[in-house]
Design brief:
Layout: H1 2-28, E1 38-45, E2 56-59, E3 62-72, E4 79-86, E5 96-101, E6 108-113, E7 126-127, E8 129-131, H2 136-146
Length: 148
Amino acid sequence: MKKISLETGVGVFMVIGFLCFAWISVRLGDVNLFAEDTYRVSARFTSVTGLKTGATVEIAGVTVGKVDSIDLHPEDYEAIVHMKINRGVKIQEDTIASIRTTGIIGDRFVKLSPGGLDETIEEGGEILETEGAISLEELISKYIFEGK
């Protein structure tokens, strides 16, 4: 009788351990197992150097979404960035999207600067005002070679 209760206790302990491990894996992996409460918006940029899928989208330093995918427009060779924005966040039509860097050489993210219009961008809409990524290497080479 004692052996059965000891084995049962160890089994329950193992099951609880595996459940805790699974929960931590899901939380740290930022995995959404259920339906996401986001909507999709896109923006065209002349350059998205260093921006990666999964990068954050911020307004006033607050994360409001993530970069879902980055595609190349086949005709005008512009980068199309598709973003998933949290449903509670409304983006005005005159919002400006720009590619910024955290720190001097940190990761790239999309910064949204809200506009003043009352009209908002709906699901599948596009942000029209954009500022591409600034390349530090291009700025330095321009300063060195054109500064003479």
